[in-house]
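Pilot study result, target chain (373 residues):
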Amino acid sequence: MMDIEDFFDDVRCQYRDKLPFVAYRKPNEATIKALLQEDEEIHFSSDYTESGFVFSPFDDSKSAVLIPFSKSKSIQSVFVSSIERKSSPNDVLTNQDQRQFHISVVQKGIEAINSNDFKKVVLSRRENVTLEECHPIHIFSKLLNSYDNAFVYCWYHPKIGLWLGATPETLLKIEGNRLTTMALAGTQKFNGTLDVVWPQKEIEEQQFVTDFIVSGLKSSVKNLTVFEAETVRAGNLVHIKTIISANFQAETLNLKQLLKAIHPTPAVCGLPKEQAKQFILENEGYEREFYTGFLGELNVKEKTSRNSNRRNVENDAYASIKTVSNLYVNLRCMQLKDNQAIIYVGGGITKDSVPESEWEETVSKSQVIKSIL
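Predicted structure:
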């Protein structure tokens, strides 16, 4: 375990030398990890049987980038967050052209829903913020300090770009022969309590996501359990979350096929998936790239003790090796380019959506990341 300053120095050197890396911390953990790739090649995951850190775009017809464990140096340290939290800024976006464009796209989406083209579509936009402090590791440190319960990361490849984020949403967690995922949808501003009343539009949106994931999983798993929905906080917002878990047979699970079935979920794309995705590609007016894609550890070998009460010297005899994958949806993220942060935000559109309200929701979501900048 490295000293935290040495950890950050190694990552800064990797960035200075223009070599690929990813630094990250999983939700509610103190350990911060990094993979420092030894070459500048672009490696891809062909079937998700590889081992490394995977970064997949929104458009599932495009390849996922991999930082392989076999071609990288692994380092880790402990990051202790300070108790100070930076509040969200009070500025309100006043770009009327951007506002009008987003409202018109949302209105077009509602009309397509009313014409039965699809049931739901998630429409997003991007916003550029000029940076006063543009070193990514400084911004990464701020994210770590502000979002303990999110997956926080900084990802860089000289031939692709630099992304950072603090996402609250798990796409898939696999540990041994157990799988866990979540449906996360619906948005309100956090007003000091999780005891909130959800409008029917938000409840319906959440159910779309839950049903889609269950449908995508059920042919590949057994003992599928859907837990009761709960309200959770993410920064200055709250969402509805439903945990879904199941068991599977490792020898029969096809992870590529499973990911194809559930990504992108209705929480970031729409329903039916293909029709909503096509509408997004044709109407949003920009390419999402890795926004609303997924990222995380892929096929990591972890040793776990079967009996933690035994003396340490005996633990190895009671240890087992599990294959673990932790994949997260790339939300609450930004791309750094030319001294600017490109922030990505969006929202779910159903037949009951109000275009002006959907715009205001994207403004609230943009404040989550802008509070760091």
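One observation from the pilot: The chain is about 25% helix and 35% strand. A full batch analysis is planned for the follow-on phase.
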